[in-house]
Structure prediction request, 225 residues.
Amino acid sequence: MLVTRHVLAAPSPYATPYYIVRGTNPGPVMMITSGVHGNETASMAAAQKLADDCASGRRVIHSGTLIIVPRVNQQAYAKKIRGKPDLNRTFPRRKSGKSKHPLAAAVFKLAREHQPDWWLDLHEANGLSQLTPRVLGQTLITNPGSSSVPICRRVIERMNRSIPVGKHHFNLKRHELPGSARTAASRLLHAKSITVETCWSLKRAVRIKYQTEIVHHFLREAGMT
Prediction:
């Protein structure tokens, strides 16, 4: 396994590190992004932990290639804000279309270069979806008709078996969000793309734990670990 560190969007005010983890055997490509919104810090910590664990050998990718961008929106992170404009509305909406923000353009250029089979976009949200179905906390979101739907169901089932508090359980949502990384990856790259949403009301350490476990479930589903 080989882990290399690179810088996305350099040189520019949007420069941010990313990591490429190459397994010893051929296999799928998975892209993991986090910090598209600068105030969603637990998801960023989970993504950085994965990169660090791969670099140290604590986590081994046996097959395929893993691309991790732990903190996409450095400027929003510095201010601990969601970001203006909302970066997750600026990704390309059609094949001939362009990203509406240079940072989204840099992220999607990286994706086009590697053609990921999978794209996990890690986020956090308000509310527990078990209590209020219209909120996004504790959900996996994918596009309608995506081949990732049964996989998401399996991951949710495994997660929920390990979570003793029923109101903290995860749910599956299916909807398109034009301009989001998830929908752009699904429409334009034909990737299995999933948004992971933990709930802000939970303790930060718990959110990091859930994000980390979900990513590991998807890595196993992809046959990479």
